Amino acid sequence: MLNAALNSPLNTKDALTCLTKSENELEAKYRHSILDVAILQDHIALQRESVIKTQSDRIDLRRRMRDAEQKLQHERQDHRDVNCDLSRQYKTMQAELTSKVERLEKEVSKLKEELALCQEELRKERRQHEQLEKEKDSTVAVLQHKLDNMDADYEKILHDTLDSLTSQLSVARQGWEDKSTTLHQNYKELLSEFGLNALDI
């Protein structure tokens, strides 16, 4: 049809105009199509970059999630280990404390028994001491009474002895005086026989 229009002399100008117009339209459509293709390619490139970035982000996020899960797993394990260790330490401390409390209770019970025995012994000692004090006071009183009696007896004996000695001394003095007078008289007589005066001697 296009060839028939070109072969007709009357329609050559119109045909050329139509052809030019068609070419322009085709060129415009072509350019528009190229532009659309370029835009679509740019859009696809952007979408691809976005997809690549999204995939990269997804991979990075998954990696980070795995790291976080591993870290969380390690922390949970550490937490379990710490809990187990603390539980073991607590049980050990509780056992030691229970043992210490039982030992202290036994020691307290033993000390209470010893204290009771000591208090009983102290009561016995006090009773014995009080008994000894009473016996001592009684003995001292008896001895004091005997001593007082002995003092009285000794004083009486002393007075009797002194009285006896005084009497004996008086008798002896009288005898000595009598003997002295007799001796003195005998000496005077003896001196007189020798012609001596006793007063001159």
From TrEMBL:
Lineage start: Eukaryota, Metazoa, Chordata, Craniata, Vertebrata
Subunit structure: Component of the nexin-dynein regulatory complex (N-DRC).
Main location: cytoplasm
InterPro entries to which the protein is assigned, alphabetical: DRC12-like
Homology family: Belongs to the DRC12 family.
Signal peptide (residue range): none
Protein name, as recorded: Dynein regulatory complex protein 12
Cell location: Cytoplasm, Cytoskeleton, Flagellum axoneme
